Amino acid sequence: MKWLTVLFLLLANGSAWAGDAAKLNFIGFSGAGNYLAYQQYGITDGEDAAFVELHIIDVERNRPLISPIKHHHPDSNQLTQLRQTNLKKAAFKLKKYKIKTHNQGDLLASNRFNDVGANGKQVRFSVGTPLANMPNMTYKLTLQEKASSIDCGDAGNAQMFYLNLMNEGANKTKLLQKDRNVPQERGCPIRYRIQDVYSYHEEFIVVFLNVFQASFEGDSMRYMAVTGTLN
Description:
Elements: H1 2-12, E1 23-29, E2 35-43, E3 50-58, E4 63-64, E5 69-73, H2 79-96, E6 106-110, E7 122-128, E8 136-151, E9 157-167, E10 172-178, E11 189-200, E12 204-215, E13 218-229
C-alpha cells in the first residue's frame, strides 16, 4: 500500500514516468545571501507534458520558505512559455525576499548529470583562489545513503541521505542534512548524487543534488537543494 501511495503522489506531480530528467535553473541568492530560488523543469516521458516548479529556500535553516510554485501543461511545446508564466507567478515572492536574478555567487564544483564518470558521493572544492601564496580554504562534501522502511517495489526501499561538509584546514565537520524519514513530496527516491556546489560571499552554500525516483518503467530525476553556511 505504501508503494501505491507513493506512485499516486508521483503521478499527481507529473513525475512518475520513465527516463524524464529535470533541468535546473538556479535563479540566485538574495542580496544578503539568506534566501535563494531555483526552478526545475522538463518534459515527462510517456505523458509528454511540460512541468515547471519554483522553490524558495531559507539558506541558513535549510528549509523551504513557501510551498513550491508549480505549473503543468499537457503540450510539451508550451514549456518555454510555461517557465515564463511560472516566473511571473513567483515575481511577488522573489521581490519580497529580495532574491536577485542571476545572483548565483561562485560555482565551486560541478558534476554535470551527463558526466557518468564523476564521483557523485564525494566532492572537494576550494573557497578562494587555489594558487601558491593565495588565501583559500578547502572543503570536502560527503554524501551517504541509508535505506528507509518505505517499500518502492522492485526498486527496493526508499533511500534517505546524510550530507557532511568538512573544513579540511581546520579538520572540522558539520552536518548539512540528515534525513530521519523520506518526505512525501520526495516520492520514492532510490539514490542521490551531488551535482553543483555554489557559495555566496564565501559564507553561504547551496548543494544541488540529483534525486533519482522509482517509476513504472525506470528512473526519473529531480533536483533538491541542501543549504547552510561554510563556517
